[in-house]
Amino acid sequence: MTDSTSHAVVGVVLRVRDGRLEALTAAAELGEGGLEAALARALDVRALAHVEQLETRMAAGRLTTAYLGLVPPGVELDGDWRPVGDLLELPFDTASLVTAACARLRAKLSYTNVGFALAPATFTLSELRQIYVAALGHDVSTTNLQRVLIRRGVLERVEGRRAPGRAGGRPAALYRFASRRLEVTDEFAALRPPR
Amino acid sequence: MTDSTSHAVVGVVLRVRDGRLEALTAAAELGEGGLEAALARALDVRALAHVEQLETRMAAGRLTTAYLGLVPPGVELDGDWRPVGDLLELPFDTASLVTAACARLRAKLSYTNVGFALAPATFTLSELRQIYVAALGHDVSTTNLQRVLIRRGVLERVEGRRAPGRAGGRPAALYRFASRRLEVTDEFAALRPPR
DNA sequence: CCAAAAGTGTTATGCTTACACCCATGT
DNA sequence: ACATGGGTGTAAGCATAACACTTTTGG
Question: What is the pTM of this model?
């Protein structure tokens, strides 16, 4: 049997800009090429540092498969970017996908290395902190961010320092993500296998 | 535009029986009624204590949306149940969905109350332990299981005790899950919001 | 010399694991 | 009494959070 339902692929792309988490949505109809191919027609996937599927919904006889994409600073992706939290002008189902995307991002920030997809190639800890603050929606201490990510092996020191701004201050060390592909770094909180 | 791709909904159902994790798969073509309706045609969803979507794939021009379902002991669901780990006779893509389902279950057992969907209404801690051991694939200490689940408020004591078997032993207290709907009980391991 | 920003040291807290010990029942 | 399974008490380990303090720069 064959169905004749319209099937859209929606990309929900997130980025951090000016200390705010912003979202962009784009859609294309599913064709012969497959889900990822439709996503590629909807937007320039080369700009995305990370992509993962969110979910597939059916409403009003229309299928929608949503993807989460993340764009690092410095990479341009044109479209109608708008701050998350200002979703009132979006249709309800789109807004709800953006909310789902943000929830997924927040969760993964705490137990994976996804941060790499929102950060530039190299950065200072303050810069990384701003990204985490924007994405998580609550304050994060630079000290603890560093401890956690270093101990897990997520961050690596890199040569050189960032010169301080006008106000002075100690020059900041530069870091990078050890891997730029998604890795689970803190698998299970409880009920770990015995040693 | 309208696509004419065939679209199957596959249910991957898991249960624990005789100390082993078993899987059953069933599929139906997507129709007008929507994804959940197709799932209901594939199998008796009334038997499932929990259902959630896994993912949507497209391979060889064919769409597949997979769901994870969980059945508690004492509820019958007919079909070709087979132990997880004995997937060689299944087509590759089905086997890979079963693997994904198990991974999802294992992960959620550690930070949610999903256990309710694999356990009977009331049970002893030993019985619950056996379920966790089978689902996680590694040993779990009864002591720690109790501590973790009680502190999180996932388990509740219930009136009465289970009489010991032939070999004697102290009668076991009975417990139940405080909620029988999915709840996240251990949100973030790291980077929690400040107090 | 002072302010500002970055980074380290130290302590406290909380959750989990490990393990020893006590409890209740059948034979 | 003793074996068996159930349950609790206690201590240890580990990761995170909090915060004080030191370091390095610009003005």
Answer: 0.93
